[in-house]
Amino acid sequence: MILRMWEAFQEVARNYPRLPLVQERRLIALAQAGRKKSADELVLRHVGFVMWRLRRTVFRSHLERCGEDLLAAAIPVLYQKVGTYNLRYRDREGVLKPVRFGSYVWKRIDGLALDYLKKERTPGGIAYIDGCDRRNYD
């Protein structure tokens, strides 16, 4: 089930479906060469993947409270990972091994979610004020 807060993002995911590996790698190469539109398109094509990873990694109660913040925090990570993706990755035997961008970023997205939720945790449990916006209210 898609959370209501993600309906707009679900529309983006529908409009930008997953690409075949060859086209995905071409977009990455163009993005790494400085083409902002290619980076934007690649990120938009992975919004659905990020939503799926967050739904698989984070408890529903946390998603309802922090889902939009987590998704927003993941977007800059995707842009960063476009720049660090190795188009010439080789396995241990030296054989060229193309990897899907989603496979490259999934651990970072999971780690981002866990790091974000750890920051929300207090000794007495989960503390939040006005969603996940935790300013110092002392």
Number of helices: 6
The value of Rg in angstroms is: 17 Å
Q: Helical proportion?
A: 55-70%
Q: How big a fraction of the residues is strand?
A: under 5%
How far apart the termini lie comes to 38 Å
Main-sheet strand order equals 1-2
Number of strands: 2
Given helix and strand content, the structural type is: mainly alpha
User: What is the mean pLDDT?
Assistant: 85
Architecture overview:
With 138 residues, this protein is an all-alpha fold. The chain is built from six helices and two strands. The chain has helices at residues 7-15, 21-32, 36-44, 47-57, 60-84, 101-120; strands at residues 121-122, 125-126. It has a two-stranded antiparallel sheet. A hairpin with a 2-residue loop joins strand 1 and strand 2 (125-126). The longest helix has 25 residues, at 60-84. The protein is globular, with a radius of gyration of 17 Å. The N and C termini lie far apart (38 Å). Residues 133-138 have low confidence and may be disordered.
Short key terms for the protein model shown above:
two-stranded antiparallel sheet; mainly alpha; disordered C terminus; globular; 138 residues; 6 helices
In short:
This protein has helices spanning 7-15, 21-32, 36-44, 47-57, 60-84, 101-120, and strands at 121-122, 125-126. The protein has 138 residues and is mainly alpha-helical.
Please write out the topology.
Layout: H1 7-15, H2 21-32, H3 36-44, H4 47-57, H5 60-84, H6 101-120, E1 121-122, E2 125-126
Antiparallel strand pairs: 1-2
